[in-house]
């Protein structure tokens, strides 16, 4: 009789423990699956943002070529009386950065080379180089990151022969987003350096 009681007590302790372990294992598997789904969604959003940026870049390139072709026919260098056609292309074309980085990607270097070429042709123009970040992180951290991004672009332009006296850098950090969304697509648009012509 005592042996049966011990077996019964042992079973009463083992069965709930096994049930608890089995339910925890199910939750872990579910959690891993949802984490994989979330990372897949983030990767797709990042790729879409990159493709959107490349499409915008192609649009800017096409407009620049049209401006140059019009300038060749009219003999005016692709500009209206105030030089605004190329000026607006210069201002509207930003460069973009990877997450938490101030390293110039190849597309950004190509854009900066075109900007340097335009600045050499317009030697009376001075430019403000604005660094921007996405909304993640503290205000202080993002101001510093925006500053590194602006300085990276400014240094590249100086290396291409643009006098530093014609360039000013400023960081807005996360304070002036292009897209206020809280997802990878919006963040990719906001990780940028923007260029303004001094008036």
Describe what this molecule looks like in 3D:
About 11% of the residues have low confidence. The protein has 199 residues and is of the alpha+beta class. The chain contains five helices and four strands; from the N terminus they run ααβαβαβαβ. The chain has a four-stranded mixed sheet with strand order 1-4-2-3. The protein has one domain: 2-Layer Sandwich (60s Ribosomal Protein L30, Chain: A), CATH 3.30.1330. The longest helix is centred in the first third of the chain and has 73 residues. It is rod-shaped and about 105 Å long.
Search tags:
single chain, 199 residues, alpha+beta, 60s Ribosomal Protein L30, Chain: A, four-stranded mixed beta sheet, 5 helices, 4 strands, 63% helix, rod-shaped
């Amino acid at each position: 009789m005592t042996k049966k009681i011990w077996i019964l007590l042992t079973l009463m302790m083992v069965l709930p423990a096994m049930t608890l372990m089995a339910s925890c294992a199910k939750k872990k598997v579910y959690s891993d699956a949802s984490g994989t789904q979330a990372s897949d969604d983030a990767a797709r959003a990042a790729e879409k943002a990159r493709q959107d940026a490349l499409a915008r870049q192609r649009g800017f390139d096409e407009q620049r070529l049209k401006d140059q072709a019009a300038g060749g026919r009219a003999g005016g260098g692709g500009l209206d009386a105030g030089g605004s056609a190329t000026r607006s292309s210069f201002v509207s074309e930003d460069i973009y950065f990877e997450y938490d980085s101030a390293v110039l990607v190849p597309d950004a270097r190509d854009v900066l080379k075109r900007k340097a070429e335009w600045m050499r042709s317009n030697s009376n123009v001075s430019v403000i180089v604005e660094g921007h970040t996405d909304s993640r992180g503290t205000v202080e951290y993002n101001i510093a990151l925006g500053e590194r991004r602006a300085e990276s672009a400014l240094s590249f332009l100086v290396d291409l022969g643009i006098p530093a006296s014609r360039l000013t850098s400023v960081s807005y950090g996360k304070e002036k987003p292009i897209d206020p969304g809280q997802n990878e697509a919006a963040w990719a648009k906001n990780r940028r350096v923007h260029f303004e012509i001094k008036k």
